[in-house]
Design brief:
The complex is a heterodimer. By secondary structure, chain A is mainly alpha-helical. In chain A, 68% of the residues lie in helices and 0% in strands. The radius of gyration of chain A is 23 Å and the shape is elongated. Helix content of chain B is 72%, strand content 0%. Chain B contains 14 helices and no strands. In chain B, helix 1 (2-30) packs antiparallel against helix 14 (308-336). The chains are: A mainly alpha, B mainly alpha.
């Protein structure tokens, strides 16, 4: 099969020193990372506790200045619900900014796990070519032909809906990509001069593989990481949306969208629109970043 | 030459499917789930539990279960070799016929979505490639990056809010037909075809109307990767020698672009095939937003109920269809670009 999406012989889009897109991606990713650390503590409400005010709409555009003033002067009877509350009375704003703790943590952990495993296995498969590694590649092929969403759902639902299991399920789904990327790179690196030089110096094969080939073969996998983290966030949210992800009342964007889904045909848009905007921007940010990194790498080649 | 190529691909596909069957079979049994207590309830007596386990065949050694599933060892039910995917533990219906009822919905949905996405994406991607680096190209590129990284279920809900609640031009997201309409007799399972067979134009239009938002949602998401791919392949085609030659001998620009498009579409076929196979299960969230009752929703139901035969069946069928689609599109690819088969 030819690879229709992996060219490096194309003229890159004009890249300037100050690449607006790149800055956009970095900004979003930074904000989400910061929220993953402090998000649960800075909201006006506890993200896992309900308030007595159920299905409050957010303040309208014209009411915002008044609310803001009242909030600063302390004349409000309760802190404003900037994004309203959902049908159970959870404050949506507090939950939206607390959710990166769940979503990003799962995505980062899943990516780290699959990256580690994938790069190691890919190194072995590319460096030592024998029937064992051939068999491993066939297993990886079979794994890659699994329908992604269904296998993630099966793994999480059958192993139990915990954060750890979601991380393992996502890592399982993404490992084959890293194996393939690293193996291809190792194959092209190991015939290069520096490997022969190291061998001529009498270094043991293991040292050559780990110290020389590995660091030079990791770039494609690292670039892929940005894309994988974005998709892992989408997958985490999708799993919660169908009831095979984290359990309520964990603040998680997909779960919040799913909670609001039934209200949307009644016109209550805010419970699912705000967390959706958060996912949309976050994943787009990671995609943009991944793309910018990829372009820089291709230029360097 | 071509036949040997097809035979080789089919053989590889069968081996891959066999590996998949084994992998899925053991994977779901390795996980710490207890389907029996899910079926009989937590508080069932020990006899009831043992009886249920025996009925499902779960009291047998795993290798015996596998042999029975494959149909190598006689049991109460026919196995895979006899052309049966087993009986659903939840509904007691044959899994194959259940999938036969759910699958057409998904195929109908994603096929229409692909047609719409291609109709939009091919011209847009070409537009970007014809003037690389220009303002249009940057816009096109940004759009494709955006559309390709979006939560489709959220966009589906957003479209419901805008087009159903606010504008009132779309039906509510409650299935393939409105709940008040009598569905046509089941012939093919494709609602658009069955309504026509029943000779009811209003029902056909209604079925089409109910697909409006789900198709829009999926087509939006799909347009991202397709535009990106058309743009890249088109750029590469425009840089090739034959385009240079065609320009040199003074062929009209439009004609050159048409030649380049043909050269660009051949490699695009592969990715479209992969996307199509991916969408068979990737449409699950959109199906669930619009309650369409496709294969994705069937798989959600089976997974949440620990219905092992149904899970195995769904994964097997979806993968088999994906592999067939890859093969088919590689054949189309070979027809457009005869160098492939040689």
């Amino acid at each position: 099969m030819t690879d229709p999406s992996g060219p490096s012989d194309l003229p890159p889009l004009a890249v300037r020193k100050r690449d607006g897109l790149f800055i956009f991606g970095v900004t979003i990713v930074t904000v989400v990372c910061i929220l993953a650390v402090i998000g649960p503590y800075i909201g006006p409400y506890d993200p896992t506790l309900t308030t007595p005010r159920v299905a409050y709409p957010p303040p309208g555009l014209f009411a915002i200045p008044g609310t803001l003033l009242g909030w600063i002067n302390g004349t409000l009877e309760y802190p404003p619900h900037w994004m309203g509350t959902d049908a159970s009375g959870y404050d949506i704003f507090s939950r939206v900014i607390a959710a990166p703790r769940t979503d990003l943590a799962i995505a980062l952990a899943a990516n780290a796990l699959s990256l580690l495993l994938g790069v190691l296995l890919g190194l072995i498969a590319g460096y030592y070519r024998n029937w064992g590694t051939e068999f491993m590649m066939r297993v990886s092929d079979v794994m890659q032909s699994f329908p992604v969403f269904i296998s993630a759902m099966v793994l999480v639902a059958l192993a139990g809906r915990s954060t750890t299991n979601i991380v393992i399920a996502l890592a399982f789904v993404y490992v084959p990509i890293y194996i393939r990327l690293t193996r291809a790179e190792v194959l092209s690196q190991k015939s290069r001069g520096f490997v022969e030089a190291a061998r001529a110096l009498g270094q043991p094969e293991l040292t050559i593989a780990l110290r020389h080939v590995l660091p030079n073969s990791m770039t494609p996998a690292l670039i892929q990481s940005s894309v994988t983290i974005g998709f892992a966030i989408l997958l985490t949210a999708g799993l919660s949306f169908v009831g095979a992800g984290v359990r309520p009342p964990t603040p998680e964007w997909g779960l919040m969208i799913s909670t609001g889904a039934n209200q949307i045909i009644l016109g209550e848009w805010w419970p699912s629109v705000f967390p959706g905007i958060a996912i949309s921007l976050t994943v787009f940010g990671f995609a943009v970043l991944g793309n910018a990194l990829e372009r820089r790498y291709e230029e360097g080649q | 030459m071509l036949w040997r190529y097809i035979a080789k691909r089919l053989l590889i596909g069968v081996v891959q499917l066999f590996g998949l069957i084994i992998a899925v079979f053991f994977l779901i049994r390795l996980l710490p789930a207890d389907p029996v207590s899910r079926l009989v309830g937590m508080n069932a007596s020990e006899e009831a539990y043992a009886q249920a386990a025996a009925q499902l065949g779960l009291d047998q050694p795993v290798m015996t279960q596998l042999a029975q599933y494959l149909g190598l060892q006689p049991s109460v039910q026919p196995g895979l070799l006899q052309g049966s995917l087993g009986i659903s533990w939840v509904t007691n219906e044959p899994v194959l016929s259940e999938i036969g009822a759910y699958l057409p919905v998904t195929i109908e949905l994603i096929t229409l979505a692909f047609i719409v996405a291609l109709l939009v994406a091919v011209p847009v991607g070409m537009l970007g490639a014809l003037n690389p680096g220009g303002r249009t190209d940057k816009g096109v590129f940004l759009y494709s990056l955006f559309a390709g990284s979006q939560p489709e279920f959220w966009w589906g809900l957003l479209f419901v809010y805008v087009f159903y609640y606010q504008l009132g031009v779309a039906p509510p997201p409650l299935g393939r037909l409105s709940p008040m309409t009598n569905p046509p007799d089941f012939v093919t399972g494709f609602m658009l075809i069955d309504t026509l067979i029943a000779g009811s134009l209003p029902k056909f239009l209604e079925a089409l109307h109910h697909l409006m938002l789900p198709v829009l949602t999926l087509a939006f998401i799909l347009s991202g990767p397709i535009i990106k791919m058309v743009r890249q392949n088109m750029l590469r085609a425009l840089q090739s020698d034959f385009v240079l030659y065609a320009n040199c001998i003074g062929l009209p620009k439009k004609r050159v672009a048409r030649y380049a498009l043909r050269a660009a579409m051949a490699p695009s076929m592969t990715l479209i095939g992969i996307l199509y196979g991916f969408m068979l299960s990737g449409a699950v969230l959109v199906e669930s937003v619009f309650s369409l009752g496709g294969i994705g929703q069937y798989s959600i139901r089976s997974v949440l109920a620990f219905d092992y035969p149904a899970i195995q069946g769904v994964v097997l069928i979806i993968t088999a269809i994906s592999l067939l689609v890859y093969l088919l599109l590689d054949l189309v690819h070979a027809a457009i670009d005869p160098r492939i088969a040689h």
